[in-house]
Prior knowledge:
single chain; 401 residues; alpha/beta; Rossmann fold; 4-stranded antiparallel beta sheet; 13 strands
Amino acid sequence: MRAGPRRARRAAGPLGAVLAACLLLIPSTAAHADGIRARQWALDAMRTEEAWRTTKGAGITVAVLDTGVDDEHPDLKGNVLPGKDLVGFGAGRGDSAWAVHGTAMAGIIAGHGHGAGNGDGVLGVAPEARILPVRVILEDDDAERGKARKSRGNALAEGIRWAADQGADVINLSLGDDSESAHPEPAEDAAVQYALKKGSVVVASAGNGGEKGDHVSYPAAYPGVITATAVDSNGTRASFSTRRWYATVSAPGVDVVIPSPDGDYYEGWGTSAAAAFVSGAVALVRAAHPGLTPAQIKRLLEDTARDTPDGGHTDSRGFGFVDPAAAIEAAAKLEPERLTSAQYGKKYFGPGPDASRDGDGAFGWAAPAAGGLGVLLLGTSVVVWRGRTRPHGRGFRSGVH
């Protein structure tokens, strides 16, 4: 591990496919453990304690398509499933440029803390959910990133399809392209639609171009995606958060505490974090109401969002601040659209689907589909990469202890 000052200088540079370029270090010592949990203002703002009276996300899998996830981090250990590396090169475990951003996002979604103290480590929105890591990008300071830029491929599209075929209930995309040259990629759009049809809810970050022209960001702008914009602890739109028509809901994206593979904790900012918070919220809704479709869940988040803007929707904050507790409560009044009649194949309004059709539920298709895709991927030897895709996050270093 690097010394503090050197770490600070390194953090001040871009973290590539990661949440932040400069991150605020909070010493992860016992003396400061209580401060870590106390700084998680987002959990209170999202009313997670109320949502946890119903569920903490048990049985739900959230795929994190990112730079990788540290499955040995004490705040995540036991919650991380075997994943997939669709990059195939770059930094590895133990390197400073490995899995920084992905671990941060996984912690926001499903961190369970550690140790006996209530203030030890980061607690996620859905602490009992499982994380499925899919490596599709490199950290900005990865020495191999230049090589990656020269071999632009479809890692993101392949990752989305792979995650859907593993039975991911939620696919978190805290990344994207919001440059001036950003444009839709047919393969990615098709992959998103494939995942939605499979039953996976797709969540993406709106982009960090709020001070750079508000360029459209992809995958945020693809149809069916739940897109998260960022607000601060006062509910005010973060200046960096991109303002576009595709905004679905807002979520915490400023001064967010995140875990890191180096054992330290940081505070960062970005719509990356906002997307992770929304993915955690979706995990709670899915755990409480597993029969709902991605479209139903998107509408639920829109209809139950708090602090609704004048007019009902704005490009800055979507339909308002995400509220998983309200969404869980409202979902109880919905008829799950996923349930189908074994005999007629239409919407089923009786006491329940035929027992012989249990495999048509949320997870019934996962095993056979995953096996088929696994063979195809094993037969692919070419490294795929979409070099322009980056994580949507930034941060800063501070002397706060």
